[in-house]
Amino acid sequence: MSAKILIVDDAAFMRMMIKDILSKNGFDVVGEAANGEEAVEKYKELSPDLVTMDITMPEKDGIAALKDIKKINPAAKVIMCSAMGQQAMVIDAIQAGAKDFIVKPFQADRVLEAINKALG
Amino acid sequence: MEVVKVWMADSNVAKHPNSIRTTGLGSCVGVTLYDPTSKVAGMAHVMLPTSTLAKNDDFKNAKYADTALPELLDMVIKAGGNRSRLVAKMAGGAQMFNFNGSSETMRIGPRNVEACKEALKKLGIRLVSEDTGGNIGRTVELFTDTGVFLIRTATKQTKEI
Amino acid sequence: MSDPIRNITDFQLDVLREISNIGAGNAATALSKLLNNPVDMKVSRVLPLHFNDIIEYVGGAENIVATVFLRIQGDIAGSMFFVINTEVAKRLIEDMLGTLEADDFSEMGFSVLQEIGNILSGSYLTALSDFTGLDLQPSVPSLAIDMAGALLGDGLMEIGRSGDYAILIDAEISIRKLVQQIIVQNGGGHFFLLPDPDSFEKLFTALGVQNHGSS
Q: Cα dist. A11→A2, C30, C109 in Å?
């Protein structure tokens, strides 16, 4: 049974790219969200096995959404995916419970590697 | 006929038969005062709603709505305009970028429009037409011959008010 | 109080050029990876310019350009713009999506441009932040295709509160494959960083460079 993934990014283009990579590699993209608020709602609704999460988004940013999701399910697996890769930000994310941090633009291999590792 | 140019945070006057124009109005407002009898026109390209926003004392009055309008009125009167006959037209005050979230900077367009209207009211000058808001850039020109205010957008559409 | 921008020294401009090149280098690498195409990005100009000149610089107030704009917040505040002409924008989108793009741009096309702006600014700020140790957060980037005067004018509002000049840091972007297709008149794009006047002191202090000469 393929793993269920929720993709969160405010750029339709980015969501399309990630969905493409994932579905071609045996993952089941069960939902998409365009901001942090939607991300938390969809998480509750879909209970995905893993979430890919952008950081800079309107309504609620990715770090705040990560924290909310972790409150709902402390075992939630979230991989951050952002154009911002400053050390301080990466540390913040990991401390808040993210499984990994990928800096955009990413290669397909890097995404797949991170997801496979997180799903363990 | 010459076209008098008004830059950003700038103001000027034009006498018949010249026209007066400013380009690239985003959240800025192009406000005009026109006397149809003496055919004198003034235009200000206002950038910000109030001079309380200024971080220092050294600024051009045309930049802020509250200081631009009184100065523009003086300029138009000096050029031969009669205060009691003046009518105002304005355009601009758009929101060019759509940021979600309540950043004050991004509400500047509507605030500029409100501030210009307030300033005109204070001076007792009647606003007869406006093309404001939305999210498109505008170029505007006032013709002293007819008092027509011509507005042009990026898509090359024109409107006369 | 004097306008810190008018009083900036050549030395300070050089410092800005150095650190901006670090940001630009990182941004170019990021964009190359995204486009799968070599990208050069080098700071071509760092200088104080009057707002009117900044607008002339991008082809005049009525020149139609595609712009991604965002504000930087954190230890330093400022505006960032990614500016390209519409022909280049179309080619970029077509490269990324593999389909032809109409003159009035598709929704997905808009998303591509927005994301390019996001990635450029993100990698630029990451490099700047890691280098200076300052906290730099981007706002959500926003795309608009319209008159340059309207778009840049909006981005200059905040700086406009302090004066009529901004330090323009321009990194010219050349995408090698694209430059061959599109005539040199505007082959590529520009990435502008316009720091708010209050930011310079913080920036120079963070770099251990004293703020020479301004009162």
A: 25, 17, 11
